[in-house]
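Notes from hallway chat w/ T.B., transcribed later so I don't forget. T.B. wanted the structure written out for a chain they're using in a teaching module, and asked if we could keep both sequence and structure tokens in one place. Agreed to drop them here.
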Amino acid sequence: MKIGFAQINPTVGDISGNRDKIVSAYRQLVAQGAELVLTPELAITGYPPQDLVFKSRFVPLNLEALEALHAQVGEVPLLVGYIDYNPGSGRPFHNAAAVLQRGEPIQRVFKSLLPTYDVFDEDRYFQPAETLAPVVINGRRIGITLCEDIWTEKYLPRRLYEFDPLCALISAGAEMILNLSASPFCLGKPSRRCEMLSALAAQHNVPIFYCNAVGGNDQLVFDGNSLAVAAGGQLLAQLPAFAESIQIVDTESAPLPGCPPKEEAKELFEALSLGLRDYLRKCGFKGVVLGLSGGIDSAVTAAIAVHALGAENVHGVAMPTQYSSQGSIDDALALARNFGIRCPIISIQNPFETFQSLLAPEFEGLPQDTTEENMQPRLRCMVLMALSNKLGHLLLSTGNKSELAVGYCTLYGDMAGGLAILSDVPKTQVYELARYINRDREWIPRSSIEKPPSAELKPDQKDQDTLPPYDLLDRVLALYIEENLTARDIIAQGYDEATVRWIARKVDLNEYKRNQAAPGIKVTSRAFGIGRRMPIAQRFVD
């Protein structure tokens, strides 16, 4: 059987646009000989639609789009994800898939397992399926699953479900499994999916065809990497990562050697680029503006922006003060030349002095401290926001996850922006990204990578004057944030007690800052944002 994969990039809420995209992919695949066409989860509405489902016309319009698709398909069946009503008790809707074929009634399948953890909140909207059975398509008994339905206990954080849809479908006679998915990216997940599907296919002796969405939707990136696996677990095909793809996979194809290895820095770079590109495209922006300090964070952010948007759509600005080294200014200008982006120098020294003079009567007799340091990024924010407003560009925040975690950033200063590209990228991985970007030539000046990181807000300032070494800080943060260990647990692993408790307390105390930060792009197993919900006013201390 020739399965047509429509690995498409839907836009949340663009129901007519998504419908047209599905029709276009369907027609291309049928013309190429597909005998069945498979689309991602909620392809008509985009994923995740969140509270748009409660808008009075949202679900009806998605059902109208489903009927319009039914009228346009031919004899080749189309399997499409959409939202259906739940006429019974419980949540108001179903996360659903429909089999559309000319001259045949619509066959509807509902999702059984509704993830409600991390970034998922499906139990807020959807009612799980009450029954589950294969559907007959062209005389074959096919098991249809939606995303989470195929994830087994071994590959989830813990045992979450009593029911196993895959086992139920196979017990009921399913000859093959089709999965419509919208599985968000995080580092390591594409390889884990491939391993899981190969193991499931071999265990149950059925072929599995898994069509994943691709594209950025707010803080989530969907990586594609759709998969076809033979009954013995051999890989038949893997579609491209981070790109739309229309491809036919024959169930009789010769197997491939196996799941290809992934280069982590390349995956991370492509995920961030796609997340930025789609955030701008789907929100209606054409360009970005960002401050270029000569440091590694702003350099990596600029490199991602140029890759995603083109140099003509990236506007850099250098904004030195008396504390900015000439080397940093030179590095910022060299970076701009290498990438071909604008980078005017707009000194904030005069407004900094003016602002200090303005407050001098109130500060009389008090020593200089972080107050004066914070004035500088806040003045830079004024410049950047003025350019953003005037040019219609989105302001990019350049801070990384390590700094955001411990509050080593300025509220209404360097934290300001419409999108924080690196906010889920620890500092040590920022360096890995810089080395990846420079793999063929020195796009980022070597000195930006090699010099000790500094905010340059006071004389001879270095990050490590305030923070632990970044390699140590990032290891502890991963245990505290991503693995959710307490300080006591981390200390028991051999880390210095004073350092661990300092880091943990800084993370807890700076929740208020992160609640006001720009949205970021999720690339780790646990990011700040929609997948992590912590109270601000709380007194729990380990």
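Follow-up for T.B.: DSSP finds 16 helices and 18 strands in the chain. Might be a good example for the class.
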